[in-house]
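Summarise this fold before class:
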Amino acid sequence: ETGADVVSVQWEGRLKVPTDEVYTIHVETDGHVRLFIDGVLHIDGWDRPGGKSRAEVDLVSTTYYQFHLEYRHVTGNAFIKVEYEAAGVLRQVIPPSVLYYVEDIDGSPYDVQVYTGPTDAASSDAFGMGLVKGVAGDVMNFFLMPRDVNRNHRKGATILVYEDGGGDDLVVEASVAASTSGGVGVRDVPGAFTWLDNDGLYNVTYTPTISGTYNLNVQIDGAHIKGSPFP
């Protein structure tokens, strides 16, 4: 309990329960309250003052859960009580023995560099006029933005070489699907590509000599990128 006044409090620490169970957490207050466990909002009484709230949360005894409680009170005596219960655990005010606070160890926080993963074909994007139209005999081009499986844009000088010494195996081929012009030339046109390091893009070019409709296949490591083959 606190005295009679305007009160705004935030408690944050770790919760480590004694047994693996579904716990019911009870909050009783005459103010406004929000309870987050591991960043998930379980009790939301921020827009209504006072009353009792409860939430059921599946917890395991080997985990230190982030426990974040926000409390706001405007007038009168300020009061809040937080309890828990589970099978084999009597309803009680959450005891100090299961609550922990977190301090940085010496040298923490550390600066950690997280790099993108290998290029994932299905997550990578292509754009440019060379995917849409062009003129027979002219060089057509488009750009390919490589992304990893989490859609992180892969940029920088390390894009072409992985830790195992390999790299992106990029294959581009435009094949004539339909033509009535009688043009002559190669019907399966290979593409060429260069890496634009500053932009983090592949510049892809190909030169069709037969007018008509093409299927443009763009593959990385044997898999089609998003949208491929392009009609």
Notes: The domain at 121-224 is CATH 2.60.40.10 (Immunoglobulin-like). The chain has two domains: 7-100, 121-224. The longest strand covers residues 7-15. The chain has no helices and 17 strands.
